[in-house]
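Our consortium's second objective concerns turning raw sequence data into structural hypotheses that experimental partners can test. To show how far this objective has progressed, the report includes one record in full. It was chosen at random from the queue rather than selected for favorable results. The single chain below, 225 residues long, was entered without modification.
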Amino acid sequence: MINWLLGIIKYPVAIVMALLTWELIGILWEMILAIKAEQEIADYFFMGMALYILVWFVLFRQRFGRMLMILEHEFIHALFSLLTFNRVVEIRANIVRGHILHLSGGNWLMTIAPYFFSLSGVVIIFLLQIASPQYYPILVGALGYVLTHHLHTLTVMLSPHQSDIKEVGYLFSILFLPSANLLMVIALLSQLPYDGIEFTEILEHLYALLIYYWETFKLYISNWL
């Protein structure tokens, strides 16, 4: 049932995400400026980003690092498979490729999820919600680390030759993935403490924008008819 419903809304969701692309770019730019204004937060955040680059080149650049990327990739497939009530039978990963076996079908969300969803980022978001302020510097650094990891993983994994991209379709991927990744990055950055940015307010703004687009569309159709 869930797979069927997701199939119905696949392209409507992609079109909605595409409509939000420029607005999300503007929001992200404003967030970057806000982060730069909070110098202490920016310092820890950029140190986390630099740490990821150092760790990658020193420890993870070779086969082990690629295997970890593939394992995380397959685990996200499995997570979204479970979230959409598809039973996972097996996960396999090596330095060349990964593979997930599941029962009861599949859907586009579980197929495309690793190309926009940051699992480690969601973990840091959760920790930031429950941590006391004394741990903010460490967690802000960790947020910079996992954001850089997410962007780097995208550059490595995202390719028109990927079987997942072929499965969901090139048109869908072009419409959906840019905004999905922008939204993921915005969700991560909105968790930085003391920056005055709330993710719920961003979602409310995007919802209001979509309502405006819908009302404008209905008005255009009524005038045309």
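The partners drew two points from this record. Strands lie at 88-93, 98-102. The radius of gyration is 19 Å. Both points have been shared with the crystallography group to help prioritize constructs.
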